Amino acid sequence: MNRLISDTSILWLLPIIFMIHDFEEIIPIPGWVQRNKEQIYNKIPSFAKARVEKMSSLTGSQFSAAVGVLFVLFSAAAFLAYEYHFYLLYMVLSLGLFLHAFFHIGVSLFLRRWTPGVATSVLLLLPYGVLSIDYFNRNDLFVFPDILYFSLIVILLFMPFLQFLHFIGRKLARSEHQ
C-alpha cells in the first residue's frame, strides 16, 4: 500500500476515529437497546442475556463517562507513539478498535438489522485498522503473523477493561444523581 496518508496523521487519527465511532454509539444506544431488547433476547444465547440486560440499563451519561475515560487513553496512546515512539499501547488500542469493528458487523448480521456503531465500523474502523496495520509493518513494529497472536491477547485483555470502564461509568452517573 502506498502512502495514502502521513504517518503522523495515522497516529493522531486513532483518538479522532474512536470518538466519531463512539458518537454513533453514545447518541442512539440507550434508546435502541430498550426498543429492541425483546427481539435481541429472542435471538441471542442465554449466556449473553445478562450482558444485554446491563446494556439496557445503561444511561447515556454512564456510557459517555466510560467513553471519556477511553478517549483520554486513546489520546495518550497517540501522544506516546508520536512523541516518544512508544507504540505498545497504540498497537493494543488500534488493534482492539479494528477487532471491535468485526463485533459490530457480526452483531448486525446476526440480528439482521442496523445496530449502533456498525456504520462507522465499516466506513472508518476497518479502513483505519488496515492503515494502522500497514503502518506497523512498514515501520517494522510488527510482523504479520504476530498480529494474529497479539489480536487474541488484545481481545482477552480489552474485554475485562471495557467491563471496568462501564462499572466506572455507572458509579460516576450514580454519584451525579445523588
From TrEMBL:
Signal peptide: none
Alphabetical UniProt keywords: Membrane, Transmembrane, Transmembrane helix
InterPro entries, alphabetized: HXXEE
Keyword Lipoprotein carried by entry: no
Transmembrane segments: 63-82, 88-111, 118-136, 148-168
The keyword Transmembrane helix belongs to this UniProt entry's keyword annotation: yes
Alphabetical list of Pfam families matching this protein: HXXEE
The protein, known as: HXXEE domain-containing protein
Organism the protein comes from: Paenibacillus tianjinensis
